[in-house]
From TrEMBL:
Membrane topology summary: Multi-pass membrane protein
Any GO MF annotation of the entry: transmembrane transporter activity
Compartments reported by the entry: Cell inner membrane; Cell membrane
Source taxon at top rank: Bacteria
Keywords: Cell inner membrane, Cell membrane, Membrane, Transmembrane, Transmembrane helix, Transport
Segments crossing the lipid bilayer: 44-66, 78-102, 122-142, 188-207, 227-251
Any single Gene Ontology cellular-component annotation: ATP-binding cassette (ABC) transporter complex
PANTHER family, A to Z: ARGININE ABC TRANSPORTER PERMEASE PROTEIN ARTM (PTHR30614:SF10), MEMBRANE COMPONENT OF AMINO ACID ABC TRANSPORTER (PTHR30614)
Entry keyword annotation includes DNA repair: no
ABC transmembrane type-1 domain mapped to chain residues: 40-251
KW Nucleotide-binding (keyword) present: no
Protein name per its UniProtKB record: Amino acid ABC transporter membrane protein 2, PAAT family
Pfam families membership: BPD_transp_1
């Protein structure tokens, strides 16, 4: 089988498009790169959605934690403490253990049956855990940014007549993001790396449609050689990390475009004469 045919058969297999069964013999590098790359689609799914939803949830949690109202502050502090203080793998395990206790036919609320079986699937249950976990870590990062917004900026906003939502949208929120963005970039990278833990969680992969680590484990078991499949996974994630650094770097330059020297690029200037 040519590499082009292998790509056509297995490139989208992790989402149910292409060959139904996995190959069992005659594995070459093309098979391994294509199958693991196919599984990476799920890692991207978990990472992108968890980051997108978690960003807004983290902003709300950071504002609640910075609030003077104890009814908002204390629940936010408790949520952040629990999800930052416990291992992500334990959170996966507890979440799955909780959802499988729900009745298979769904919950009956006021005569309306709410389906619950979908929560036990990796695409939903594992995603919810990742959202809550990254929201807790990101909220702590954003809360630090909120506490470090210069008072001079707030006083200037008041002098211009900005208050409430206008001040938050124009002054507080952009400044919070600018101060928090380097640390938030690290959290985004760690989140995408953490998507590999879905393979070890109890959430099942339906019809062998798993993530990159699922296919790497399958190939390592079939070839009895873990020194090919797992480095391929690492290589894919290194490329993904480089892409995230580049993308978040663009946003960082956008957030800091008003600062002196922000548009200057780094240049190599060797010191030839001491």
């Amino acid at each position: 089988m040519s590499c082009a045919q292998t790509f056509a058969d297995y490139a989208l297999r992790s989402i149910g498009i292409g060959a139904r069964g996995l190959p069992r013999t005659d594995f070459d590098l093309c098979h391994q790169f294509v199958l693991i790359g196919s599984g990476l689609i799920w890692n991207l799914y978990f990472g992108i959605l968890a980051l997108a939803v978690g960003f807004f949830l983290a902003t709300a949690l950071a504002l609640a934690k910075a609030s003077d109202n104890p009814w908002l502050r204390r629940p936010a502090e408790a949520f952040i403490f629990v999800f930052r203080g416990s291992p992500l793998f334990i959170q996966f395990f507890l979440a799955y253990s909780a959802v499988v206790l729900l009745p298979r036919e769904g919950l009956n609320v006021l005569g309306v049956t709410i389906p619950t079986a979908w929560l036990a699937r990796a695409w939903a249950g594992a995603l919810i855990v990742l959202i809550l976990n990254t929201a807790a870590y990101s909220a702590e990062i954003f809360h630090g940014g909120l506490r470090n917004v210069p008072k001079g900026d707030l006083e200037a906003a008041e002098a211009y007549g900005l208050s409430g939502w206008s001040r938050f949208r124009r002054i507080v929120w952009p400044t919070m993001l600018r101060l928090s963005w380097p640390a938030y970039t690290n959290e985004a990278i760690f989140l995408f790396h953490a998507t590999t833990l879905v393979f070890f969680s109890a959430f099942p992969a339906v019809q062998q449609m798993g993530d990159s680590l699922y296919y790497a484990s399958y190939l390592a078991d079939k070839t009895f050689n873990p020194f090919v499949a797992y480095p391929i996974v690492a290589g894919y994630f290194i490329l993904l990390t480089l892409g995230l650094i580049a993308l978040f770097g663009v946003v960082n330059r956008r957030l800091n475009r008003h600062l002196p020297g922000a548009a200057q690029r780094l240049r190599y200037r060797p010191k030839l004469i001491r």
